[in-house]
Design brief:
Helix 3 crosses helix 8. The protein has about 325 residues and is an alpha+beta fold. Strands 8, 9, 10, 11, 12, 13, 14, 15 and 16 form a nine-stranded mixed sheet that branches. Strands 1, 2, 3, 4, 5, 6, 7 and 17 form an eight-stranded antiparallel sheet that branches. The protein has eight helices and 17 strands. It is about 25% helix and about 30% strand.
C-alpha cells in the first residue's frame, strides 16, 4: 500500500504519513505500551458521502484503554471526533476506509515501566475494502492458543502488546487450511475470534460470551446485541459457553469493526446448521448493512457524515 500521499494527524498537527516518524527505540514499539482503535468509514456512492460508524463509541473506549496504561489522550472525545472528520476531509476519500487512532508511550530509551514515560498520539486513515470474505461462510477451528486473561493484561482494553495473542491464533488455522480461529479462555470457555466477538444461535436465543471470559467488549458487539433485541425481539444471553456448544449451535457468526458480520459455516470440520447462512444471521447482517450504508434513517445517529458536516460548517 502506498501511504506517501496520506495525510495523518500526529503530535498535534496534520502532516504527510512519511513525515510522521517514530524512532526504533520508541517505548510503544519495544514494549507494546500503546492502545488503539479501529473506526470504519463507508462510501455511499448515491450520496457522494463518506459515513463514519460509531465514532464516539470508539473514542470513549480508547479513553478507557489509555487510562489503564496511565496515559491521557490529548483532546476530548468531541474534539477527537472533529479531528477525525477533518482528517477524512483532507484526504478527500471516496472509498471505504479504516481509521486507526492510537496512543503510545513515546520515550526512546530502555526500561520497562509505565510511570514517567511521555505519551504520544496519532490518527491514520487508509483505504480499506474487507477484512474477511463475508460472502462465503468461514471455516474455523478452535485455536491451541488461549485468550490472554485479565490477570496478565486487561483484555477489555485494546492494548498493543496484548495483540500478539491475535496473530499467533490467526496464523495457526490459516496455515492449516481454515479461515479463522476461535480462542478459548484460560478455563476452557469460548472467548472470541482472533479479532472478532462471537455469537451463537440456538432455539431463537442469541448467546455470546460474557465479559468475564476475557473478551474485548466490542463496539460492533454492542451494536448487534441492540439490533437483535430491538429489531428482531430476540433474547440475548451473555454467559460462559462451553466448547461443545459450538458443535450444537444452529448458527454462529463473528462481529467486529473490520469484519462486520461474518457467518461461520463450520467449526473443527463440523458443519454449523446446514453450512449456509442462518435466518437470524442473515437478518442481522442485512440490517447492519442497511445501517452502515445510510439506508436506515432510524439509526442515523450511528453515522457521522463527513462531507455533509463540512457543508454545515461552511
Amino acid at each position: 500500500m502506498d501511504l506517501s500521499s496520506v495525510t495523518v494527524y500526529a503530535e498535534g498537527r496534520f502532516c504527510r504519513y512519511e513525515d510522521a516518524k517514530v524512532g526504533l527505540l520508541t517505548h510503544g514499539l519495544q514494549y507494546g505500551t500503546g492502545c488503539f482503535e479501529g473506526i470504519r468509514g463507508y462510501w455511499l456512492p448515491e450520496e457522494r458521502e463518506l459515513a463514519l460508524l460509531l465514532v464516539r463509541d470508539h473514542y470513549e473506549r480508547l479513553m478507557t484503554s489509555a487510562k489503564i496504561l496511565t496515559m491521557s489522550l490529548p483532546k476530548s472525545v468531541d474534539e477527537l471526533c472533529d479531528i477525525t472528520t477533518d482528517l477524512c476531509l483532507r484526504n478527500h476519500y471516496q472509498a471505504d476506509i479504516y481509521i486507526r487512532p492510537f496512543a503510545y508511550k513515546s520515550a526512546e530509551d530502555v526500561g520497562v515501566r509505565l510511570h514517567g514515560v511521555p505519551d504520544a498520539f496519532a490518527i491514520v486513515p487508509i483505504p480499506f475494502t474487507r477484512y474477511l470474505d463475508t460472502s462465503e461462510g468461514l471455516h474455523v477451528c478452535v485455536s491451541s492458543w488461549r485468550r490472554s486473561g485479565d490477570t496478565i493484561a486487561p483484555p477489555r482494553a485494546k492494548i498493543s502488546g496484548l495483540y500478539v495473542n491475535s496473530p499467533l491464533a490467526k496464523t495457526e488455522p490459516v496455515i492449516n487450511g481454515f479461515d479463522e480461529a476461535i480462542l478459548l479462555s484460560h478455563d476452557g470457555h469460548v472467548a472470541e475470534g482472533s479479532a472478532e466477538n462471537i455469537f451463537l444461535v440456538r432455539r431463537n436465543v442469541l448467546y455470546t460470551p460474557d465479559p468475564s471470559q476475557n473478551v474485548l467488549e466490542g463496539v460492533t458487539w454492542r451494536a448487534i446485541k441492540e439490533l437483535a433485541q430491538r429489531e428482531l425481539g430476540l433474547d440475548v444471553v451473555e454467559r460462559s459457553i462451553d466448547r461443545g456448544e459450538l458443535y450444537s449451535a444452529e448458527e454462529i457468526f463473528f462481529t467486529g469493526t473490520a469484519a462486520g458480520l461474518a457467518y461461520v459455516a463450520s467449526v473443527d470440520r463440523r458443519a454449523v446448521g446446514d453450512g449456509t447462512v442462518g435466518p437470524i444471521t442473515a437478518r442481522l447482517r442485512d440490517l447492519y448493512d442497511r445501517i452502515v450504508s445510510g439506508r436506515d434513517p432510524r439509526y442515523e445517529s450511528w453515522l457521522t457524515r463527513v462531507y455533509a458536516s463540512a457543508r454545515v460548517s461552511a
